[in-house]
Amino acid sequence: MTNTDIKIVEMGARDGLQSERLPVSLKTKITLIDQLAGCGLTHIEAGSFVRPDRVPQMADTPAVFEGITRKAGVIYSALTPNLKGFEQAVSAGADEVAIFASASEGFSRKNLNCDIATSLIRFAEVTRAAQQAGIPVRGYVSCIAGCPYDGDVSHASVIDVTEKLFDMGCVEVSLGDTIGTGTPGRIRHLLKALLQSIPPHKIAMHMHDTYGQAIANIYVSLEEGIRTFDASVGGIGGCPYAKGATGNVATEDLVYLLDREGFNHGIALLKLSETGLWINKALRRQTTSRAGLAMLNRQNAQ
């Protein structure tokens, strides 16, 4: 493997919190984002501009953007499903926006209330407006390794949606194993097919850890040349439209892997582990980060 510089996109404040059933206070959200920036994370998805009745936890995203202490060099992004959401993100001062398509028709209809083709037409409106405003757009493709409604998802579908997102102007596309059913062999097979037409530096991986395969899938992705990964501090989160899908890979576990394998990322692991423990306590749950717990236990033993 060559090129040791890694970009981590922190999902905790959006993907991590969106499925929480109990309200998370505005203060907690703002503190989380500020702490993440203090750990060295330079790409933080701070919220989403979606209908409050669809994702109530994200209803205060405008206030979140207003309340955070912006740190130089940090990109604060937001998920924007449509033109109205994009306009709200611009007003809030988002540095980057993201759109989310699906490689599965069943998930698209459940998550976006329309088929894949219709969703892409809607997203094209967002990318055109973003290009005019000079704001970069990141794309997501859900269910790359399986769908809770359709079962297996073909590589052809993943590649087709990914290429269409690039064609409409996305600067990067993140491939999401939404229900965590991917395994190293399957992820490698997908990437070998997809990277025949798309360069690896334009692809990110968004691995959920439902079956404990996220770190193994990330390592395979590293071997295939991918250098951008999404993660959620303390392993918090899931997907409100994929029953049983647990959180994204814990950022601490990803950072530990990268440290041990000699990659550069600029993130302070101990400080990140403390943040992961803090947010999980605030949510009244246990952190799922094994590396984070090990770091804190070692620190306490000294």
What is Rg?
A: 18 Å
Q: What is the string of helix and strand elements?
A: EHHEHEHEHHEHEHEHEHHH
CATH homologous superfamily classification: Aldolase class I
| Structural classification | alpha/beta
Low-confidence runs = none
Overall tally of domains: 1
Helix content: 40-55%
The number of distinct helices, counting runs of at least 4 residues, comes to 12
User: Which sequence of strands runs across the widest sheet?
Assistant: 1-8-7-6-5-4-3-2
The CATH topology name reads TIM Barrel
- Separation of the first and last Cα atoms: 35 Å
Overall pLDDT metric: 94
- Judging from the principal axes of the Cα atoms, what is the shape? globular
CATH class category name: Alpha Beta
Number of strands: 8
**Approximately what portion of the residues adopt beta-strand conformation?**
5-15%
* Annotated CATH architecture: Alpha-Beta Barrel
Could you explain the architecture of this structure?
The protein has helices at residues 12-16, 26-38, 61-67, 83-92, 105-112, 116-133, 155-167, 184-194, 214-223, 251-260, 269-282, 290-301; strands at 7-10, 43-48, 75-79, 96-102, 137-142, 172-177, 203-207, 228-231. The chain has 302 residues and is of the alpha/beta class. The protein has one domain (7-301): Aldolase class I (TIM Barrel, Alpha-Beta Barrel). The longest helix is centred in the middle third of the chain and has 18 residues, at 116-133. The radius of gyration is 18 Å and the shape is globular. The relative contact order is 0.14.
